[in-house]
Write a structure and sequence with these properties.
The structure is a single chain. Helix content is about 45%, strand content about 10%. It has 22 helices and twelve strands. A three-stranded parallel beta sheet has the order 1-2-3. It has a three-stranded antiparallel beta sheet with strand order 5-6-7, with no helix packed on it. Bound molecules: zinc ion (ZN). The site of zinc ion (ZN) has 8 residues, from loops.
Length: about 525
């Protein structure tokens, strides 16, 4: 994209806004973050990919970008998600830092690390590179000690800002810091008292410990979210950070952070972009990390190619809420993607504006370089049939696409899309979409007219197969010929004829559209069954 191209996509429009409002800089800091309190679910992904798209928008304008990803792993372990193993073990760590809670899967060094690593790997799969910042390390290192003192000094200013948005004011004993007890490591301390310099005294509500922390050396003091967020905007000089609806509401943490950042940390808030929620359709409403069974980026990647996962977000404006389908609409989503991809490559007519948007959306959807030519587009619906006819064997179906696979990108497309189709058939497809092709002629109780029809059809397929296997017109020719055959059998209703044919082929009364289905199965196997 050149500097002079018109700005049509939200990622470019936002990049342009950042440059205009923050000044022309060589490098811009973009931020996002998550508390790894459980499996990072797909709902969290919208923020990450929103930042990634804007980063691409800035890079397209020749700018350097630092995409920092804050893992808030010094937050408190407040709730044990029901989908975690070793619940008894985890119970012992309630109210401890997430980073000090053990991994219940015994794979990573902590509970936090387990979920962080899993999400980082998923981001790689969709072409997102971040610079992770582990907040537990920053706090434990004492990197924020001056900011913590500054926060304590402004206790009354902060309380006044927060009270404006509260129905009942904060108590006189409230302090703008939290602290993990020096004896039991839980954040259940009360009576925090600051001596105006480096010392904090407190009492633990749980174990009764009376402790003292020195701000110059402590690793136990932390800023709660409403202070932590604006503090880090200034600490990292953040230029852009989006936020969800929940943060953006009146009295939400963005509203108060905007005031706190200027009054306490003498900085300004980053450019903001509110994004809406994403929901899941056709997967049983599993979206809350506290309820277990959440949908992750990996789950979506099981059904959609990596480029399509990016495309779904690139093609919706950030202020639009939408759902990602796991049901029959998966087919429509693939068709929509294929259409826009063809428009981007001029293989399907569209007006100038649509073509320009299609090109930009496709660029933003790439994991690797944008292919110079339109990649192969195997129809998802057709793939489902071919794969089932071939017992789900991806290598067997490649011969169906001979001549169309020209590049490595084509090969990857066919393989990834096939794998997605198989996963979808196994996990989400409606029952009437699934079939197994009979291996031999089944024993069926058919009427004379049905038997007659099958015999005549077999003869037709023997004699005229070459005309039915024509790529463009074959389906239609066979479809018409089948009706002709039906009409030669006295008293036979088309519905009865087709039912018999489906029974012979797949032992079901319904199935994929017959003409195309027969051609895809191939002459030899169909005749064997007839
Ligand atoms: Zn304690």
């Amino acid at each position: 994209m050149s500097e002079s191209s018109p700005l049509i996509h939200w990622a470019d429009i936002t990049a342009d806004r950042i440059i205009k409002q923050r000044g022309d800089k060589d490098k811009y800091v973009l931020a996002s973050g998550i508390t790894p309190s459980g499996v990072v679910h797909f709902g969290n992904f919208r923020e990450t990919i929103t930042v990634d798209m804007v980063a691409r928008g800035l890079r397209a304008r020749g700018k350097n970008v630092r995409f920092i990803f804050s893992w808030d792993d010094y937050d408190t372990f407040r709730k044990i998600p029901v989908n975690m193993p070793n619940q008894e073990l985890l119970k012992n760590y309630l109210f401890c830092p997430i980073v000090d809670t053990p991994d219940p899967f015994s794979e990573e060094e902590s509970y936090a690390a387990h979920h962080e690593k899993a999400y980082e790997k998923q981001l790689e799969r969709v072409g997102i590179q971040v610079e992770p910042i582990y907040q537990s390390k920053k706090y434990k290192n004492g990197d924020y000690k001056e900011q913590i003192k500054l926060t304590l000094k402004h206790r009354d200013v902060i309380a006044a800002i927060l009270n404006k948005h509260r129905s009942s004011p904060l108590e006189d004993t409230w302090m703008p810091v939290s602290l993990y007890c020096g004896s039991c490591n839980r954040d259940k301390v009360k009576n925090i008292k600051w001596n105006g310099d480096n010392l904090l005294n407190y009492t633990c509500e749980l174990c009764g410990h009376e402790g003292q922390e020195d701000l110059q050396s402590t690793s136990r003091v932390k800023l709660p979210w409403r202070m932590d967020w604006p503090m880090r905007w200034v600490y990292e000089a953040v230029d852009f950070e989006p936020g969800g609806k929940d943060h953006s509401s009146e009295g939400g943490s963005y509203t108060t952070a905007k005031e706190i950042v200027s009054e306490v940390y003498t900085g300004s808030p980053p450019i903001y972009l509110q994004y809406d929620f994403v929901s899941i359709k056709g997967a049983g409403g599993k979206m809350s990390s506290s309820k277990g069974d959440v949908i992750t980026v990996n789950d979506v990647l099981n059904i959609y190619e990596p480029e399509m996962v990016r495309w779904i977000f690139a093609s919706y404006k950030t202020n639009v809420d939408f759902s990602i389908s796991f049901d029959l609409d998966v087919i429509k989503t693939y068709e929509d993607f294929d259409r826009q991809e063809r428009q981007a490559y001029g293989a399907e007519p569209a007006n100038e504006k649509k073509v320009a948007m299609a090109k930009r959306v496709m660029e933003l959807s790439q994991i690797s370089a944008m292919p110079t030519e339109l990649p192969i587009q195997p129809s998802f619906r057709h793939l489902c049939n071919i794969l089932q006819i071939n017992d789900g064997d991806i290598t067997k179906i490649k011969s169906n696409y001979q001549g169309q696979i020209k590049t490595q990108r084509d090969e990857r497309r066919l393989e990834e899309r096939s794998r997605c189709a198989l996963n979808w058939l196994r996990d989400y497809a409606p029952e009437d979409f699934k079939f197994t092709l009979n291996k031999s002629k089944p024993q069926l109780d058919l009427g004379n007219d049905q038997i007659q029809f099958l015999g005549k059809l077999a003869q037709l397929l023997k004699d005229e197969w070459h005309s039915f296997s024509e790529p463009e017109s074959g389906d239609k020719a066979l479809h018409e010929k089948m009706y002709e055959v039906i009409h030669t059998v006295e008293g036979l209703e088309p519905a009865q004829a087709f039912k018999a044919l489906y029974m012979v082929l797949i032992n079901k009364e319904k199935g994929p559209k017959l003409a195309n289905f027969i051609v895809t199965i191939g002459q030899e196997r169909v005749l064997q069954l007839l």
